[in-house]
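Can anyone check this?
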Amino acid sequence: MTERLFNFSAGPAILPEPVLQSAQSALWAFEDSGIGILEHSHRGALFSKVIEETEANCRKLAGISDDYEVLFLQGGASTQFFMIPMSWLGEGKTASYVNTGTWSNKAIKEAKLYGDVHVAASSEDKNFSYLPTEAEIQWPAGAAYAHYTSNNTIAGTQFAGTPTVPEGVPLICDASSDIFSKPIDVGAHGMIYAGAQKNLGPSGLALVIVRKDMVETAKQELPSMLQYRVHAKTGSCFNTPPTFGIYIMGEVFKWILEQGGLDAMAKLNESKAAILYDYLDESAMFRGTARESDRSLMNIAFRATSEELEAQFIKEATAAGLPGLKGHRSVGGMRASTYNAFPAKGVTFLVDFMKSFENKNK
């Protein structure tokens, strides 16, 4: 059997090995049914049990109350970029966004198709290497909603807490790259959404946690597949849902619970990130690119002293069994994505390799 590598990819990303092992068996015959999980009807009793358990464990992990719907939708986070303004924007309404990187930029672009957009703050002036402070974010009162991206995969920045918005303005969070990596204040949000392919499962699936009163106020003059109320009323089974993705997400939820829940995940992720950040802070060749106070625990972006050294480093690291370290094409450099399932020994292995590379190329 091929040896597994330390996969630093930003997404689709590493999954817990016990989840992959469970999936191997389930692909052949799920729960001794003689039928693989990919082949089970979404209307059948076995899959109904899967989706019910997945929702229940999601609620348990994040302390999600009955005031919220938990939905499993297709299209990843990018579909949410337009479903949100399509549902709550329109003539005479304004949505407010904090622009902290590529993905918030994309969300803003989609929102402008449906109404007025107010940019409450932006860190574009320094290539998104920092996050605006609470004092710098100017949320307008009376906005249809306020939107932020909790973790910026490309720039390597992450909000440490939840932004404060004017009373009565629903706060919406794109949590695609740090969902369930630490405790989250669901009650402070009107909606939280996340593409699955970072911390929750395979690509193509989105988790949506949305307050029920928001679902009821969303526009009804929309195609059925683009209405949150339709998916809520049908238990995310209005059409054939991504059954395998939901199964994997459910197994990931079980794995997180077995690790001790979101508090345990936070401690693990803090300790893993510290291994690499501590080295970057003392290295003469490598440096982190994000402002120290805004550093991400999920995506650690760094540069070397020259682009030539970066290219050489990426080539040698890949050959050494450390794939996925090349930075996003829009910013260059390197990026180590250390999501929930990434093992601490992989970060240590990377730092040892970086130290060796630095010593050889002084």
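Reply from J.R.: I decoded it. Residues 261-282 form the longest helix (22 residues).
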